[in-house]
């Protein structure tokens, strides 16, 4: 049984992430989507909220489960008995960064990374832009799953 993990900050999860998960779910027997705490990023949503949004966003996929973690992705992969790490790619810039990370992960843990390119219709979406737009009261409903849109409207839209 091939198990993959798809780690990310998912702060918040968006339709580009959903497309990567839906694609990976057709390739691997089990996919574990892991909300990771990234020390270099200031959190927008708590890690608990991010995992909750992941769970509700992927309820339609039987072989997808969610989790959250801190620390190194390779340690999380080992703890979850994952065979491979999934990374989504939007552009050549993503590729360069992710390739360097994949090579480092392979060197220190022997785990392989599987790259999935974003469909063009989602390749421009970024959690950073979603945070900025929603923080200013903008509509992000066409960029994120419905549970995310509803949460952002409830929690940020009412802060006027």
Give a short overview.
The chain is of the alpha/beta class and 160 residues long. Helix content is 42%, strand content 19%. The protein has one domain: Rossmann fold (3-Layer(aba) Sandwich).
Please characterize this protein's 3D structure.
The chain is of the alpha/beta class. The chain has helices at residues 15-27, 47-57, 73-79, 92-109, 127-135, 146-155, and strands at 3-8, 30-36, 64-69, 84-89, 112-117. It has one domain: HUPs (Rossmann fold). The chain is built from 6 helices and 5 strands, in the order E-H-E-H-E-H-E-H-E-H-H. A 5-stranded parallel beta sheet has the order 3-2-1-4-5.
Which features does this protein show?
alpha/beta; Rossmann fold; five-stranded parallel sheet; 5 strands
List the helices and strands and how they pair.
Elements: E1 3-8, H1 15-27, E2 30-36, H2 47-57, E3 64-69, H3 73-79, E4 84-89, H4 92-109, E5 112-117, H5 127-135, H6 146-155
Parallel strand pairs: 1-2, 1-4, 2-3, 4-5
Estimate the strand proportion. 15-25%
Please trace the helix and strand order, writing H or E for each element.
Answer: EHEHEHEHEHH
How many helices? The count is 6
Strand adjacency order, main sheet: 3-2-1-4-5
CATH homologous superfamily heading? HUPs
Largest sheet: 5 strands, parallel
- What CATH architecture do you see? 3-Layer(aba) Sandwich
Count the domains. 1
Tally of DSSP β-strands: 5
Task: Return the CATH topology.
Answer: Rossmann fold
Instruction: Specify the helix fraction band.
Output: 40-55%
Low-pLDDT ranges: none
Give the CA-based shape: globular
Cα separation of the termini: 50 Å
